[in-house]
Amino acid sequence: MTSTTGRQGGGGGRVNGVHVRVPKMAELVAAQLRRKIVRGELTEGEALPAETALMAEFAVSRPTLREAFRVLESESLISVRRGARGGARVQTPEGTVAARYAGVVLEYRGTTLKDVYDARTVIEAPCAGLLAERRTDGDLERLRAAVAEAEGLMDDPSAFIRAHMEFHALVVELAGNETLSVLNGMVRDIIDQANWSHVDLDAGTPENVRANRRGFRAHGALVELVAARRTEAAEELWRLHLQEAEDYLLQNRSMTTVLDLLG
């Protein structure tokens, strides 16, 4: 492989009068290792070559290589164990990293929970329509199994809400759009925490029981619309279900922003 040579520090210059930032050597090394990970050339749990081998491959110093490791570790693409028996091992990219960072950004911006719920509706409702359009027999089996599991948990608010949230994630997953799935994961972490907070507040109350039963009926109805491939009806039903869930969950006026929930 061609070695990565160049100046150790970052810097910049001007091209056609525009300032252009030159990446630091560590960033270039991190970029090449990142590319190998996302292409599957380095797999989950695999140990990276020894530092001496990587230093020779990229023609860099040990401090530069370790700075590249810190970049990849901050992205959760590798885990580094220090010490004589240590080393760097590959971790596959996960949406949870993006979700955590998105939560920080939304907290900083003072984003309201209503804003997050509205975003979920924009993402999830079309996914219900896509699922009705593209579904397979295997998809229907998974959806019906999820509904059956939730039905057996109606008397356990904590277990039921977990099954409820998993059904929502399943709808997005089975829709088959990876971009929407990643975007959904970024808001789902916040939504799930809001759901858990609500369970702590009113689990088992008559209002909670009614809301759970309405939600369960909506899930069952969606499965039937998906089975019949009624795309528009599935999307509209899911939009209504999400709006009802939003109205119910936002009744807790003590938490109105993402910062209230996560801070």
Automatic annotation (TrEMBL):
Record-annotated HTH gntR-type domain positions: 23-93
PROSITE patterns the UniProt entry points to: HTH_GNTR
UniProt keyword list: DNA-binding, Transcription, Transcription regulation
UniProt xrefs under SUPFAM superfamilies: GntR ligand-binding domain-like, Winged helix' DNA-binding domain
One Pfam family recorded for the sequence: GntR
PANTHER family per UniProt: REGULATORY PROTEIN GNTR HTH, TRANSCRIPTIONAL REGULATOR, GNTR FAMILY
Identification of the protein by name: FadR/GntR family transcriptional regulator
Organism: Streptomyces cellulosae
